[in-house]
Design a protein that fits this description.
Immunoglobulin-like, five-stranded antiparallel sheet, five-stranded mixed sheet, 29 strands, about 450 residues, elongated, about 40% strand, about 10% helix, mainly beta
């Protein structure tokens, strides 16, 4: 409430001054939070027994250092009181001044002040002022939500346990929304982390990453895989312990039977032998990034030790609650290994000297996370002399006849699994091209031979 003050004066004397100068109190009705796009009305109530001088509304910015006028009523130049309502008459009058803000924006968020001035009774010229303020809280619902993998594209490893991080990015909210994850429709019980996981930190720094759980193993050496299997048969678990959670002593290793070697074309069916837990521990980290428009971007991260046998085809969803939303926002992804890449070759009938493009067009299923594509030439190096090429497309410039019949392999892999597709390059020889002069020379030679024969 704003009213005339009497600094350094007793209450009785202050009351006498009010009686002499005029009585004035100002109050602004409190406002509930409003949503971007709504209209809001600011209401300033003031009671006085004096003669009106002016009413001024201010919008306060920069921490109170700047006051911008948004409405002014000057009684000296106007007798129109239509913007005010006279509630009742006693010894004084109760008025209400209103200011309407249509379609509020985030920038309208902040404090507002109502200043009222009346003439004092003694001089009829001196102005007595009183004021009050209110804070307009403008909320904004999130405008977008998406779920990505922190470390993509990433390779699949048969010999190394991998941590996996999903990142839910929510943009445009004010205040910051509440974010949580579900798996197959069930809320995930998480353990908060004070620091972001390494994979998510890599997302902020050009996707550099490392695993929380790490085994120094060569993915290309089956001998080490056999050593792991031998370790299991002797009752020892090669699984690297989770640094965030202890292991019960009574949990012994689960023996895994030896299986036959699996062809490269269905490598996605082979999973790490040491991943036995079907009830992983999920770790959760959340960060708020203030935006220039006053909203907040939230990045929520869910990290756990990946088990392709259990997590393949699992549905993960990120949901958001916000006071400006009538129902939660949601974005969902299904973890899936790539299967059956479709490769196209242009041109379909390559000739010597042509530029050939081999491109991955799609899969037999929806794939998440984003696959990593690697091209190799079976039994030799690529045309540029490199051993492999990364990307969805392999370009062979000016193919020579020597590449006819060569086999190319495209490996598509993500943390859930990998698969290979082979395609053979057939190069057709070019037909001889004769100029008009050559054709004339050939005709003359044939004519000469004919004449000699006759």
């Amino acid at each position: 409430m704003g009213m005339m003050s009497c600094p350094g004066v007793s209450a009785l004397l202050c009351a006498l001054l009010h009686l002499a100068l005029g009585y004035l109190t100002v109050t602004i009705e409190p406002l509930p939070p409003v949503v971007v796009g709504d209209s809001v009305t600011l209401k300033c109530n003031f009671r006085t027994d004096g003669r009106m001088r002016e009413i001024v509304w201010y919008r306060v910015t920069d921490g109170g250092t700047i006051k911008q006028k948004i409405f002014t009523f000057d009684a000296m130049f106007s007798t129109n009181f239509s913007h005010m309502e006279n509630y009742r008459k006693r010894e004084d009058l109760l008025y209400q001044s209103t200011v309407r803000l249509p379609e509020v924006r985030i920038s309208d968020n902040g404090p507002y002040e109502c200043h009222v001035g009346i003439y004092d009774r003694a001089t009829r010229e001196k102005v007595v002022l009183a004021s009050d303020n209110v804070f307009l809280n403008v909320m904004s619902p999130p405008v977008s939500i998406s779920v990505i993998a922190a470390d993509t594209p990433a390779a699949f490893s048969r010999y190394q346990a991998q941590n996996f991080t999903l990142v839910c990015i929510v943009c445009g909210g004010k205040p910051a929304p509440q974010v949580y994850f579900k798996r197959d429709g069930e809320l995930i019980d998480v353990i908060p982390m004070l620091e972001p996981p390494p994979a998510a930190a890599g997302l902020m720094n050009n996707r550099g990453s490392r695993n929380l759980l790490n085994r120094d193993m060569d993915d290309t050496k089956m001998q080490k895989s056999l050593l792991l299997l031998d370790t299991e048969e002797r009752g020892l678990s090669p699984f690297t312990e989770n640094p965030f959670r202890g292991r019960n002593a009574d949990q012994g290793p689960i023996p895994v039977p030896v299986t036959e070697a699996i062809p490269e074309t269905v490598v996605s069916l082979e999973f790490p032998r040491w991943v036995h837990s079907t009830d992983p521990t999920y770790f959760f980290h959340q960060m708020h990034l203030p935006m220039s428009d006053g909203t907040v971007e939230v990045r929520a991260m869910l990290t756990w030790t990946l088990n392709p046998q259990v997590d393949n085809e699992a549905l993960f969803s990120c949901e958001v609650k916000h006071p400006a939303l009538t129902m939660p926002m949601q974005s969902e992804v299904t973890l899936a290994a790539p299967r059956g890449p479709k490769i196209t070759m242009v041109p379909t009938r390559a000739r010597v000297g042509d530029t050939v493009r081999m491109t991955v067009q799609g899969f037999q299923n929806e794939v998440f996370p984003e696959p990593l594509f690697t091209w190799t030439r079976v039994g030799g190096r690529l045309l540029d002399g490199s051993s492999e090429h990364d990307g969805k497309e392999l370009v062979l410039e000016r193919v020579p006849a020597e590449l006819n019949g060569s086999m190319y392999r495209c490996t598509a892999q993500n943390p859930m699994g990998s698969t290979d597709t082979h395609t053979r390059l057939i190069v057709f020889g070019s037909a001889p091209v004769y100029s008009s002069h050559c054709r004339l020379t050939l005709v003359l030679i044939l004519l000469t031979v004919t004449l000699e024969l006759t």
